[in-house]
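Take a look at this chain, tokens included, and explain the fold to me:
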Amino acid sequence: MTTWEYVTTPLLIHNTAAILNNWGKQGWELVQVVQGPEGGPVAYFKRPVSDDGSNSAGLAAAAEASRQFDGDTV
């Protein structure tokens, strides 16, 4: 049976494609986009967990999301 991990990230309207493409390159699949609590769009992603756990979301994904949100990556 496939086990999934999930992550959410805010989407900046002026940088949406870059944010989605960056998550896609890391193997994340967009599940849905909903309005966040502060009114902006929030993306929900999932990806299968590898047997060895090497692609765990952890700190690396959080750091990447933070950089994307701050506009440091394109």
